């Protein structure tokens, strides 16, 4: 099943089922995504009509919980190296995860509004929406709670992160509203889903040029059941909880990857590219997002058809 | 206006207006607290009937956002001293705040379920519920967004905190579901409200004995408008955002306070009491919550009447 939420006067929008080819949709009886998750009613009794992804808000325009992991530990190691911070060995066995803001997500085509001095960056991620998860859930229980998969642009304000990390209390100012793909897809409809993760190329274009072509199924140290079980160790998770993978990041021959322009898989965020530049030339060249800069994030099926629709966002000055 | 939410089949419960003396209530047309905040419709057209706080769930049984500050910096200094960690001077001018879980709060009378080895502690706090707050809100805008005030028990798992603080990503496992008072009260109905904060004694009884009698209006380094503006620096806050004060904590003659049993104002969490014991005797004596241990948190008006109802929770083993 493919679901999307159309913008409406309701802050939770209007839930629709979307056809395989993302061309048509029909409203679901539950009205909103959260109501469908709460009641288990994903039924429809309306006619199909034209689907335009530009009418979409986030599948869950606001959610009761967003927990974002850092499952691609390679990314963590790279961004820490870029800051001159060593990475504890435990990060390879104990997932990093933060409680993210979930009170209002950006629509997939919304501008990212902020002060360029904050160091505006994108992060292409895979995210899942769960049903209810009991406290202390096993990996099997966690796996069976995964209801939908989508893409995420976890907007990050790089220049505000070191200060907040130093305080230890996580990200409040440095992780503003993030965005999700127009369409959320149930795992049974995803050929790339298996072993608790999504495989396939995550396409990231920055200002119209290929920037990232990483594979989400590779180098994911912690799969989604593991991330969910980590989150549920001491508390229940409500239906509609969103769990993010963290920035998709691939190694190359055990080390950092190469830019797409040099034949590599590239990067899912500017910070990694800057780190590689720093390694190679002593200084970062690529600037963080400036007003007008654009990022597109999507995945394709074997026939080249978009799976989740496209996150397509431009930066805009405050 | 005094509002509470009665348990119902709806995960968001049923919103009621409560009389001044907390003896009667009547349903509000909006149905749920979030719907009233979303629409601004706080109207009622039903009859008053008996109000029993034991029928209450959290005023917002689940919320889109809970951000918890550490406005009583004295508390931060004490718990860090107890861990042997120095406190950066910047903590006196730059608020500490973490994004807390908000997908499901405990009811005011719910057991706190957990493994005693986690170091289960309570934290008595003041919390406010906001209307919508624009990104970059001024202190005046932040102040005017405060809609309701309530009490919070920010349950903390002390033995899991140092590991998560060390990772820098904030609290996920070490801050499980917290609880709020049965009744949320608008500032205009609170004689103790002024200067962006709530004044008056926060009563904390632990196992039936006075444990905390701190004054919430004293030693609050950052008032609520300041906390809200901090949260809104880089993002909008949705209506229904809950902002917590952090553990209410009073100094005594510039140093740590004394237990109630020794004539002091006592403490709003066990961790502070243990810290004082460590200072005085070299070792903490008071254990964190064991199965069956009970905490009660409430405030009273000038006539001794309960303002918000009572948070009354016992620990229970997993």
TrEMBL record, chains A, B:
GO molecular-function terms, A-Z: catalytic activity
Sequence ranges assigned to domain Fumarylacetoacetase-like C-terminal in this UniProt record: 68-301
Annotated Fumarylacetoacetase N-terminal domain residues: 1-39
Protein name stated in the entry: 2-keto-4-pentenoate hydratase
Entries under Pfam families matching the protein: FAA_hydro_N_2, FAA_hydrolase
InterPro entries, alphabetized: FAA_hydro_N, Fumarylacetoacetase-like_C, Fumarylacetoacetase_C_sf
